[in-house]
């Protein structure tokens, strides 16, 4: 699979930057992660996401939404809320969420 960034969208739009450090407990995490990736795509106004984990264990996921209301719909989604609670209980040593409005966006693709 080739890595590709989420395309640049017409601003303004919203991004949520979730940085985390995981616990050793992986029970149910891959399945929940796959379900959340499936579920967020159903949220009206969801634009995409990018995710990476450093060799040192820092995870960074940036999710993009058309507006703050779209992000709020995701935050209120029942299965997502249950996954957040389980994450605090089982999967994360620590995390931080940063939310901001993107004012400028552009991209480059060598092959385009």
UniProtKB/TrEMBL annotation:
**The organism sits in which domain of life?**
Bacteria
Alphabetic keyword roster: Monooxygenase, Oxidoreductase
The membrane-spanning stretches of this chain are none
Q: Which InterPro entries match?
A: ABM_dom (IPR007138), Dimeric_a/b-barrel (IPR011008), Jasmonate_Hydroxylase-like (IPR052936)
A Pfam family: ABM
Question: Which GO MF terms does the UniProt record name?
Answer: monooxygenase activity
Enzyme Commission no: 1.14.-.-
* Gene3D superfamilies reported for this sequence: 3.30.70.100
**PROSITE patterns for the chain:** ABM
Report the enzyme's class at the first EC level: oxidoreductase
Q: Where does the ABM domain start and stop, copy by copy?
A: 13-99
**SUPFAM superfamilies linked:** Dimeric alpha+beta barrel
Q: Does the keyword DNA-binding apply?
A: no
For this entry, the protein name equals Antibiotic biosynthesis monooxygenase family protein
């Amino acid at each position: 699979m080739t890595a590709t960034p989420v395309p640049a969208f017409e601003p303004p739009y919203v991004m949520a930057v979730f940085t985390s450090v995981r616990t050793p407990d992986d029970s149910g995490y891959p399945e929940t992660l796959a379900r959340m990736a499936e579920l967020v795509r159903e949220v009206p106004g969801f634009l995409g996401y990018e995710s990476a984990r450093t060799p040192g264990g820092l995870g960074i996921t940036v999710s993009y939404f058309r507006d703050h209301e779209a992000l709020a719909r995701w935050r209120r989604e029942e299965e997502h809320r249950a996954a957040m609670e389980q994450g605090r209980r089982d999967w994360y040593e620590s995390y931080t969420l940063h939310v901001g409005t993107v004012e400028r966006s552009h991209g480059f693709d060598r092959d385009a």
